[in-house]
Amino acid sequence: MLDRTDTPAALAPAAPAGHRLDMDGIRVRYGQATAVDGVTLSVEPGEILALLGPSGCGKTTLLRTVAGFIRPEAGRVLVDGAPIGHLPPGKRGVGIVFQSYALFPHMSAAENVAYGLEARGRPKAEVIRRVEAALAAVRMEGFAARRPRALSGGQQQRVALARALAIEPAILLLDEPFAALDRALRLDLQLEIKRIQRRFGVTAVLVTHDQDEAMSMADRMAVMRGGRVEQVDAPATVYDSPATPFVAGFVGTSNRLHGRVEAREGADYRVRLDVGASVILASPRGFAVGERVLLCARPEHLALRDATAETPESWPARLRISLPLGPALVHDVEAGATELKLHEARHGQPPAPGPVRVALLPTARPALFPAGDDA
Ligand SMILES: Nc1ncnc2c1ncn2[C@@H]1O[C@H](COP(=O)(O)OP(=O)(O)OP(=O)(O)O)[C@@H](O)[C@H]1O
């Protein structure tokens, strides 16, 4: 794979060289506790799949199962359709980049990158060639002789990435690789990994608890909770059409409004919100008239209205504060016991705190769930 860096053709767009990864019904238990609870996921050749979820949801356990450090109680890991469960980590064709750089401190950058190749008994000339190519791919060719302690955190992580890529892995596993880096370095390395991944068509799994990172890096994201996958979709789909209230709250900000279905109007529902408004909503789900529902509205789905502009589809509230964020305004609003966040374009000065009304924008497509899904 990295051999393509040997020629100017290395600058050509990615060839579809990636491999397919399947996780099929993976279950992992630590004693009595189930850490991964029957996860089935596929990663297409050349795709980055992010495993996103709160601390303890099983992301790292799932990744380590793919890597071969953990033997699952049930389920299979397959690469290009062939089970790899019987293979030890070193024989699985996976490259791993961890949160901590995990470089050998007494070895130079080049020696660190060479390590995996030498352990696999590759001929010396090939090792030299691949180390050079891997360091060049992460733009660290000028640092080959440096020890890790003479490199910044971001540079060390680039070397760790070069080491993972040098073995030409079928699958690249990234376990919170940016967590130890400050914001600027993090963005640098995110771009770097995305660039390399695109260029070489590497299939990758990225573990992160950072939704922005998952949004920007991943082709698809699997949102996990309690050892299970609640949704796997393209980032924009997860944001626009969350599968569960948990996903709606974990990915992006979600305003939760309870209500009751008043009537069916064609393909839409008229919902009476508890905050005191009646709104028309579309939903792919089916609801019965009278059913209790939960509306999850994004901050940009809602708008402030004048306190005197009473309409059936808006409700009374109090503006606590408006924060100008460049060209936008974030309003912090309370409607009885319900707290709401609104996001609007800013025109001039922020409005003063006090009585307002809040309306659901007619173009908004908030997610609607049965009230019982609210957990
Ligand atoms: N070696 C272990 N022994 C016992 N329990 C463990 C072990 N490793 C993880 N767990 C538990 O398994 C569950 C899943 O842990 P895991 O590290 O996979 O979650 P995670 O989503 O990666 O979390 P984080 O984002 O905090 O790294 C957690 O409840 C955790 O406490």
Automatic annotation (TrEMBL):
Protein's organism: Teichococcus aestuarii
Source superkingdom: Bacteria
Protein name, entry field: Fe3+/spermidine/putrescine ABC transporter ATP-binding protein
InterPro entries assigned: AAA+_ATPase, ABC_SmlMolc_Importer, ABC_transporter-like_ATP-bd, ABC_transporter-like_CS, Mo/tungstate-bd_C_term_dom, P-loop_NTPase
A GO molecular-function descriptor: ATP binding
Domain (ABC transporter): residue spans on this chain: 21-251
PANTHER family for the chain: SPERMIDINE/PUTRESCINE IMPORT ATP-BINDING PROTEIN POTA (PTHR42781), SPERMIDINE_PUTRESCINE IMPORT ATP-BINDING PROTEIN POTA (PTHR42781:SF4)
UniProt keyword list: ATP-binding, Nucleotide-binding, Transport
Signal peptide coordinates: none
One annotated GO biological process: quaternary ammonium group transport
